[in-house]
Each structure stands twice: as structure tokens, then as C-alpha cells.
Description:
Alpha-D-Glucose-1,6-Bisphosphate, Chain A, domain 4, disordered N terminus
Amino acid sequence: MTTADDPQHAHPTEHAVVVSRELDAPPDVAWTAWSDPNLVRRWWGPTGFTCPRADVDVRVGGSTVVTMQAPDAWGGFRIHNRWSFRVVQPPERLAFVSTFVDEAGTALTPGEAGVPATVPAEVPHVVLLEALPDGRTRLTLTETGYVDEETRAQSQAGQEQCLDKMQAIFAPSRSGSDAPLS
Length: 182
């Protein structure tokens, strides 16, 4: 049976999303992409989407509520998610379950949230941060719970874009400064 902190034992019918990026920051700094609301707002949502809201409480039993807003050309719709934390081991590991909520934080079904019914109501996530040489970090995000390939592929594409945005936060600036968070 799948648990939020053990995606390796996912049910065989599930299709996992696995996305990995190398960040130009040590794990304790890379961790802030999950714990600092200003940074979460900079990377959450695929390309062209914004994150006007990130209420962050990263602790076991805590949750983060994020709002992803579509570009005006797509109607500017908003989707709210709650990440309910099950494992918090800074700066190495996070495990949480993502659910859809309304603006007030009340749980919604995928259909009520305006997404396809094939999207699971609860999506377990595990985030691993691994120290690399030269003060860098490999971040690997795994989502489980998908039961069809099309929905899994859509989530994969969205997470790839989100983590591209996160990676850019920590990229050295073109001027050679080592202050990518400013």
C-alpha cells in the first residue's frame, strides 16, 4: 500500500511522477524553496502561471496552502491546493499529501476544483534533497496515486515546469553574483 512517505511501495496500477533537478545551492538553502512563502510564490505553477498565495507551515501536522493562477489568456482561473505534511526532516526530506481546497481551505473533489475527474483527490508527494559536491543539491520530487498515463503525464509536465522555475531561483546571476535569492 502507498504511504505519503514511501512512494517506492506504490500500488502497481499507479503511475508515478518523478522529477529531479540540480540546484546551485546547498540543501539548507534549497530547503527554503519549500519553507519561505516568498520563494514558493516564485516557483509554484507551470510556465505562465503565478502563485498569488502561499500560506506556509512546514511541520509535521502543518500545511501549506498555495494558489495557482492561470494567465489572463486562459481566463485567469485559480486552483488552490493544500499540502498536508506527514514527514519534515530539514534539510533532507518532506512528505506531504496534496488535496484541492477552496479559497477558505475547505476540501474539494477534483471536479469541484475544476480539474479532470481522473486527477486523484489525494496525491502523496515525497521531496528528497541530496547534497552534491561544490555546495549543490539534487532535488527529487515523487508523486504517486495516478491511475492513468494521461493524467500522470500532465502532472509530470507541470512539475517539470515548476521545478525549472525553482532551479532558476538558485541559478547564479549573469553578473557573477552569488545572490540568486535577492
